[in-house]
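Worked Example 4.2. Consider the chain below.
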Amino acid sequence: MVSADVSDAVVAVRARTRSGVPAGCTGCGHLSAWCHSRYLRHLADVALGGRPLRIDLSVRRLYCENPVCPKVTFAEQVPGLTVRYQRRTPQLQRLVEAVGVVLAGRGGARMLRILNVRLSRCTVLSQLMRVPLPPLETPRVLGVDDFALYSDTYGTLLVDATTRLPLTLWEGRDAEQLSHWLREHPGVEVVCRDGSLTYRQGILAGAPDAVQVSDRFHLWQGLSRRVQDIASAHRGCLPAALPPVDETSPAPVGEATENTAADSRAGRHARRLFEAVHALSGTGRSHRSVARELGLDRRTVRKYARVRTWQEVMRRPSRRPSALDPYLDYLQQRWDEGQHSAKILHEELQAKGYPGHYQRVKMAVAPLRRGLPLDEPRQRAPSPREAARWITTHPARRNPHINDRLPRLLQHCPELRHTHDLVRRFANMLDNHDATALPGWLDDLTDSGLPPLTGLAGALREDRQAVAQGITTPYNSGISEGRITDVKLQKRLMAGRAGVPLLRHRVILIAHLRRRYADQSTVPPR
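Applying the procedure from the previous section yields the following structure tokens:
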């Protein structure tokens, strides 16, 4: 029997179970129809017509007729409507759990309030933590990577590289925790990781038979950083990338900037500090001792001690190129032809692809109206980061600007030319998935005479087997990096207040939730 009572706030539905229908004992499962009494259960359900719904259900308490059952009486359960010790229907409970997984505590409580379900954030978190994690199956290909948990504390994330689902995460990135997990879950055949010595030792101790794969992205990233260090050490060669100028032309902007910096107060101060630091550190004294004597911070002393010239610590003014620069020659040509309307010139440039505003064109032709030449775009030497990007970019993907300047730079600086050749050789190994030339390439790194490359060669030689696997096999840590991005998103949604257990619960459950709904959306309709 069902009846409904509609009030202003809550829709109440009254119902009762049928008498005389046997029900299974919650202890032993034995059917019984011997009624002891009845009592009323109040069940919250999903909103009905935009209003909260409450089901007032009258259920029976029955005697268990099994003499060996420890239960004397039991309450009957209605499949799909009631669960033991639960004051919410299974449908509402699934909704609360899904909202908790997606939005966590405070955000989940707000969303449930919009759905006319009033629960506190603590209740939402409690229900979330009660959701059991999916059973963990040992993966064949495992991804291991670290992530910043908070401040200087890091965590470790394990990902199944085959299913792309996270397995677990914990605080810390020491080898013992990883080796312990691998011993408890035997069967891992391939482990993808970065160049971390800690993870290398943990994998070797926990799964000695597993093939370790050093990630290609991290290998290329490490090489790019060394290239930037070399470009920084040869900063004086970078102005050679600029187009040649005539003898009557003014000095390049790089030289003018250096001369201006030398005459400035900041330049004189940087030169005095550079000379003082190198005079003391050249005697073998520690940075801390030099900082104490000069009254400087230890990091400042270290910065000046690592550079070769005082100009390297000077901050150069940033260059702001204009979108109009490629069209200056056309502007000059049209002006010489007699077209002096900035509005018409702007319309012509727009037809050629210029995305800028009319006011910029008007300001550009203002010198021509006074009989002066156009303001030419400023020539600036590339920064060490730009030079490193030029060297590491594939030749087929370099724009004409790079193809014009990089050959001049490499011709002027033998060290950068040698670095460019070594980078291209390693890129060919990655493109061809062939590590045959790896030993000879490492020897050439060692013999290059460039300290950044020499140090890289030593690190790669210690991990040569994993590096070779990273070059030749299709396995990589891209899946782990993607999951770490998701971990950071969940951390931000919880405003950094969550502990590791809650973070682990959400990261694992939300990945499975997305997979489940993605699979449901791909099922064709009947």
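The first helix runs from residue 90 to 114. Confidence is low (pLDDT under 50) at residues 247-257. Compare this with Example 4.1 before moving on.
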